[in-house]
């Protein structure tokens, strides 16, 4: 068996086939692994896309379905289960629920009112328990007491739609009795349009959305971008009322790049062929040499034809090929090799490497010759070679193979060197893409994990600490939204260049994506970490010049320390993230260490964030109103609307706690819109009820203020409610306006052109520059309650209040003091010419019934204002 194998391996063609098959199989396996890895990455990316679109579709669907809660509220206000002016009311509220095309009221399940009536007349009198296509959901809604969703089904108005049905129960004899339904018909195409699902086409992704039909149990396609079946798609399922929807996405061109795959296979084929060819050459060389030897013995001085052919062949190969005897003396070399030493073959043969290169390099070559001879098999190494002939410098892969005669006597070493400079550069490029952020060239998430794993092992061994700093820019989204992503990207690059020099060699600065950066400081103390956080914050807040803008950005930093705040990467990152969240809540531009208190807090924040998503539709939000009093005559000149959240399990939650959560989770836009609409509607009602003219002030969060469509939204609401604009006042914190003053001026101009009044809340606590204040279209300055609180004991606060009042007068602005609790505070404000006041001294914020009672008895306030 062994003998046969030997005989075969002396045949160059057998060697060619064996080497080709082996090398090709190995290369194909590696290529396949690489391809699988790339496909996995692509799938992970598509999974995130599927999750995002699912969230948007669900968000739009929930918003449309929440119209049924509005109908429920209207029903509760209209006794007898009949809504008067239903068509007009529906016309007003429908624009707030994109996708909803019809609203219906169905006492005992029989539709009695529909809006709009035109085109939907047929629905009147329809018994929802008997309608074949959707009666199942009607029974389900009545039995479960929950909102149900029917469809997709064909709409009588044309197109495909969904029907959301909310059962209403009335309380009789201390028991809940089914009263009927309120329903909303939703055009499904609008839901998908709002979620911008068609953008997937531009990303060359095919998609399909389906559900399992409750009756047939078969897959019902809701939406599909293609008729052909998706290839091994990524699937994401999400809940809708009484069911689930599934979105499947796959790339049009298939996973991974088939073209790249084929190119690699082709390269592997070529490489395997070359390798096999070389192996064949080596065997032929050996055979030739043996033949030569015998010929030399037989015919002295006569050149062999075979040797000449062999020489021609070797010289045609671009790789360097040479043969040395066991002492390192050259026996022959090809033309390519001559280039290396800048000498002809006859000048090289008979000499050693020591005759051509420095001692160190010659030693290196010799060592590898010896390793190959000792190993008795081919040995591979990589080396940098400089060519004497033309100065070329490159990376070479060298294979040294010991050569034996037929008696197993060592004849020498055959060397073959191949230039792999370009291949290595390509490999490095691929590696860079995999491990580094393309924008900032900083280590990415993957590389960061590797480094932290490595650093953790070292600090663990040396019994030291390691700090993880999570850096997140404050309100970075506003920069992207207002100045564009290109400016946002440039800013990230500039800031990262600023931060890098502050770190030591052993530290790591990484970009996680978006505006999130992570710094790893191995072997540091708590004080070192705090010191570094301060330095990073200072470096970030230095003004940055971008294009024509000069921007000031700040950041918040959360710090977690190994081993106290986590023994592994994931726990440490979670802790640093939670600490960073708290730093943001604490006014931003600061840093926080992780504590056990944060641990329990972050769990609460998560629960609140989740519960807040349903607070609006479940009617848990309400507004309280606090009167604002003119100090000259004691009249109520306005009210401030303050939001309240009463959760069935958590109880009353302060806006101080949940507004930042709403801002961070993006829910503030919906909540803020609800506050403005509710406050404006209430004020219009009070006007219609004959209460004296006054304004209603609503708080605007910085996120709302910097949102692109703010002034359009405000106009829509006041037009919708028919409230004269000057009765609506918007309170904006000083810091929100100062974040991006140029954009603030533009937005304020738009709002004031519409006649809406603006006041600066918490005035005195921020950093308003006077030059900007002059440009701000502001009507009123609201003196922060922290100054009013200590008027009686702190002379500095008294001075600040006097200065703000004087500043207001000089700029022609009204001043209002908030948090007035005592008569002394009131007297001081009157003496110094403050225009208005608000606070517990006059009244706490009151619910609608109580504030209406107070508005009917204004003498209570008058007496308090005039008492001596
Ligand atoms: N100690 C003391 N406090 C007084 C007195 N008079 C009024 N207050 C309280 O001071 C806060 C004044 O509102 P703010 O400065 O705008 O501060 C508000 C505002 O920044 C925010 N907020 C409230 N409602 C909304 C809203 O609808 N949207 C937004 N974005 N923020 C809101 O939450 C903050 C806190 O709201 P509240 O808890 O309702 O607290 C209110 C009010 O109840 C007093 O004499 N003494």
TrEMBL record:
Domain EAL per the UniProt entry, residue ranges: 605-859
InterPro entries linked: Biofilm_reg_signaling, CHASE_dom, CHASE_sf, EAL_dom, EAL_sf, GGDEF_dom, Nucleotide_cyclase, PAS
Catalytic activity: 3',3'-c-di-GMP + H2O = 5'-phosphoguanylyl(3'->5')guanosine + H(+)
GO molecular function, one term: cyclic-guanylate-specific phosphodiesterase activity
Every PAC domain range: 380-432
Keywords in alphabetical order: Membrane, Transmembrane, Transmembrane helix
Pfam hit, one: CHASE
One GO term describing the cellular component: membrane
Segments forming domain PAS: 306-358
SMART domains tied to this protein: CHASE, EAL, GGDEF, PAS
Location of the CHASE domain: 107-248
The UniProt record lists the keyword Cytoplasm: no
Ranges where the GGDEF domain occurs: 464-596
NCBIfam families: GGDEF (TIGR00254), sensory_box (TIGR00229)
Protein name from the UniProt record: Diguanylate cyclase
Organism this protein belongs to: Sulfurospirillum halorespirans DSM 13726
């Amino acid at each position: 068996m062994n003998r046969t194998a030997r005989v075969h391996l002396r045949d160059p063609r057998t060697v060619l086939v064996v080497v080709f098959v082996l090398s090709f199989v190995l290369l194909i396996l590696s290529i396949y692994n690489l391809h699988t890895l790339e496909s996995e990455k692509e799938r992970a990316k598509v999974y995130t896309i599927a999750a995002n679109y699912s969230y948007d579709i669900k968000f739009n669907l929930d918003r449309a379905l929440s119209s049924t809660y509005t109908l429920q509220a209207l029903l509760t206000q209209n006794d007898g289960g009949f809504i008067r002016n239903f068509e007009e009311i529906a016309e007003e509220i429908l624009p707030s629920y994109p996708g909803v095309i019809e609203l219906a009221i169905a006492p005992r399940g029989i539709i009695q009112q529909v809006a709009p009536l035109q085109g939907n007349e047929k629905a009147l009198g329809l018994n929802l328990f008997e309608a074949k296509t959707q009666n199942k959901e009607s029974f389900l809604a009545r039995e479960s007491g929950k909102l149900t969703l029917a469809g997709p089904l064909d709409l009588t108005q044309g197109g495909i739609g969904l029907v959301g049905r909310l059962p209403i129960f009335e309380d009789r004899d201390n028991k809940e009795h089914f009263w009927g339904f309120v329903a909303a018909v939703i055009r499904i195409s609008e839901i998908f349009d709002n979620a911008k699902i068609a953008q997937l086409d531009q990303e060359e992704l095919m998609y399909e959305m389906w559900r399992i039909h409750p009756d047939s149990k078969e897959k019902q396609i809701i939406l599909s971008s293609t008729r052909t079946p998706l290839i091994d798609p990524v699937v994401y399922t999400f809940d809708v009322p009484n069911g689930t929807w599934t979105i499947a996405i796959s790339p049009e061109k298939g996973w991974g790049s088939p073209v790249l795959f084929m190119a690699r296979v082709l390269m592997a084929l070529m490489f395997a062929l070359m390798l096999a060819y070389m192996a064949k050459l080596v065997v032929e060389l050996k055979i030739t040499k043996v033949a030569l030897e015998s010929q030399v013995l037989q015919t002295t001085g006569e050149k062999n034809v075979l040797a000449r052919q062999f020489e021609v062949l070797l010289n045609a190969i671009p790789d360097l090929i040479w043969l040395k005897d066991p002492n390192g003396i050259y026996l022959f070399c090809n033309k390519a090799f001559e280039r290396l030493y800048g000498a002809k073959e006859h000048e090289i043969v008979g000499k050693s490497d020591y005759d051509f290169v420095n001692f160190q390099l010659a030693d290196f070559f010799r060592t590898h010759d010896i390793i190959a001879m000792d190993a008795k098999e081919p040995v591979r190494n990589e080396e940098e070679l400089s060519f004497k002939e033309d100065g070329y410098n490159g990376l070479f892969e060298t294979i040294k193979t010991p050569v034996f005669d037929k008696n197993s006597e060592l004849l020498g070493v055959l060397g073959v060197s191949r230039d792999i400079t370009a291949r290595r550069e390509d490999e490095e490029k691929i590696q860079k893409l995999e491990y580094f952020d393309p924008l900032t060239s900083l280590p990415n998430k993957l590389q960061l994990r590797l480094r932290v794993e490595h650093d953790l092992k070292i600090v663990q061994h040396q019994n030291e600490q390691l700090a993880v700093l999570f850096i997140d820019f404050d309100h970075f989204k506003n920069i992207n939204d207002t100045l564009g992503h290109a400016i946002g990207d440039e800013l990230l690059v500039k800031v990262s260049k600023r931060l890098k020099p502050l770190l030591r060699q052993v530290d790591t600065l990484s970009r996680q994506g978006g505006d999130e950066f992570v710094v790893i400081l191995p072997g540091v103390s708590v004080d070192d970490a705090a010191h570094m956080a301060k330095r990073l914050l200072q470096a970030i807040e230095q003004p940055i010049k971008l294009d024509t803008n000069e921007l000031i950005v700040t950041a918040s930093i959360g710090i977690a320390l190994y081993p106290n705040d986590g023994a592994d990467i994931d726990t440490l990152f979670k802790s640093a993230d939670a600490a960073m969240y708290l730093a943001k809540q604490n006014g931003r531009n600061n840093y926080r260490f992780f504590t056990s208190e944060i641990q329990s807090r972050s769990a609460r924040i998560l629960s609140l964030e989740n519960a807040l998503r349903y607070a609006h539709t479940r009617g848990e939000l309400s507004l309280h109103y606090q009167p604002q009093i003119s100090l000259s005559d004691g009249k109520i000149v306005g009210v401030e609307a303050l939001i309240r959240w009463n959760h069935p399990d958590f109880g009353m939650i302060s806006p101080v706690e949940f507004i930042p959560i709403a801002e961070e989770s993006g829910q503030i836009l919906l909540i803020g819109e609800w506050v403005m609409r509710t406050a404006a509607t209430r004020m219009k009602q009070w006007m219609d009820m004959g209460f004296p003219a006054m304004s209603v002030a609503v708080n605007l969060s910085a996120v709302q203020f910097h949102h692109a469509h703010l002034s359009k939204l405000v106009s829509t609401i006041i037009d919708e409610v028919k409230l004269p604009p000057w009765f609506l006042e918007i309170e904006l914190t000083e810091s929100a306006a100062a974040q991006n003053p140029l954009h603030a001026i533009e937005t304020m101009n738009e709002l004031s052109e519409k006649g809406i009044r603006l006041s600066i809340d918490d005035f005195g606590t921020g950093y308003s520059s006077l030059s900007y204040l002059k440009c701000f279209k502001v009507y009123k300055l609201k003196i922060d309650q922290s100054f009013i609180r200590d008027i009686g004991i702190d002379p500095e606060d008294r001075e600040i209040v006097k200065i703000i009042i004087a500043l207001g007068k000089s700029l022609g602005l009204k001043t209002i003091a908030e948090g007035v609790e005592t008569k002394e505070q009131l007297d001081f404000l009157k003496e110094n010419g403050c225009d208005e006041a608000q606070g517990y001294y006059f009244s706490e914020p009151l619910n609608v019934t109580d504030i209406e009672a107070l508005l009917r008895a204004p003498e209570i306030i008058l007496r308090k204002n005039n008492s001596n």
